[in-house]
Amino acid sequence: MRKPRMMPIAITVVISAAALFGGWMLYKQVAVASPLTDAVANVPGIANADKPVIEQDKVSVSVELSDEASLKDVYTSVTEQGKALAGKRKLDIVIQNEEDASLNAIWQEAMFDIAQAMETKTYSDIPKTMERVASGHDGVETVTDMDGTNVYVTIKNAGGAKYIVLPRTPNQMGVWPNA
Questions:
Q1: For residue 45, what are the CA distances in angstroms to 92, 127, 162?
Q2: pLDDT tens-digit profile of 2-35?
Q3: How far is CA 155 from CA 45, 91, 107, 142, 165, in A?
Q4: Which residues does residue 95 pair with via DSSP β-bridges, in sequence order?
């Protein structure tokens, strides 16, 4: 019986692995990343969108909003367009904030009351809380909005904006990962 030659076997394994890996990378780029980038770039209110990061179980899209953008409209549009392209993966939308320290202080001041409103599902208290907190600071504007799945809070001043998306699930209270 002949002894198998190792060099042709090794070359075959390397070529097969390269073809499979290259095919997977091409699929991710052509079937998911490129169409998602194009779809997100066409959403009104998005000033800049980074290339999506595709992982086994999730797709992350990072966007920067223009000054006149509606957080709720942008988030809803990206979610609708991204779900079809992400397939069964979770779609994670990251809103880039250009904020200053005063916006974080305003959010910290309001966070306890917001958390309480989220926990007790008294969502109508959120705009009141944000208006009350903003009234103590010159040049600060707040916008609150809500849909069936999230509460959207925008805090703006001359130095930038802070965007917060709060899921309407009271079991996830505590420190919000996207605040």
A1: 18, 22, 15
A2: 777 888 888 888 888 878 777 777 666 666 677 7
A3: 16, 24, 8, 5, 12
A4: 63
* CA 89, chain centre distance (Å): 14
Contact indicator for 163, 73 with CB cutoff of 8 Å = no
In the chain the first and final C-alpha atoms are separated, in Å, by 68
100-139: pLDDT as tens digits: 788 999 999 999 999 999 999 999 999 999 999 999 889 9
